[in-house]
Amino acid sequence: MSYEVTVDEAVARPTAVVAATTTWREFPAVWPGLLDEVWDCLRAAGIDRGCRNVMLYLDDVPNVEVGVALDQPCPLTGRVTASALPAGPVATTVYRGPYAGLGAAHQAVADWCAGHGWPPAGPRWEVYGPHHDDPAEVWTEVHWLLRPAG
């Protein structure tokens, strides 16, 4: 699969998240419970759809924030806190297909950054399209925050 990578200027987007420190090996088993906590909080506030799921990887540990992009204010409870997706220059691509293949999209962005003189700043995130039972209809935006090219 080939990926088109573009550079855009991201604006901070408010999120409701549960933050965690984990390992890459443990993360696949950890994130569903974190996302469930966020959706339980939203449903308790009367929101049951319309918020796109997000995963923000702050570093390579990984320290992560798993949750949703908020389009409206919402009371947050428990471990769910307010945060935001980063603002600034980003390299972006769109991945289409089952989530297990997202690593290839991240690698494509990393390769593009290396080949175009845009050093990554560290944080990177995924914004998920609406759920579909057909993996061919699934799409995910992959964003890498950039340092200025130099």
Provide an overview of this structure:
By secondary structure, this protein is an alpha+beta fold. The protein has one domain (6-146): Multidrug-efflux Transporter 1 Regulator Bmrr, Chain A (Alpha-Beta Barrel). It is built from 2 helices and 8 strands; from the N terminus they run E-E-H-E-E-E-E-H-E-E. It has helices at residues 27-44, 102-116, and strands at 6-10, 13-21, 53-57, 63-69, 81-85, 88-96, 120-128, 139-146. An 8-stranded antiparallel beta sheet has the order 1-6-8-7-3-4-2-5, covered by helices on one side. A hairpin with a 5-residue loop joins strand 3 (53-57) and strand 4. The longest helix has 18 residues, at 27-44. Residues 3-147 form the AraC effector-binding domain. Pfam families: GyrI-like. InterPro entries: AraC_E-bd, GyrI-like, Reg_factor_effector_dom_sf.
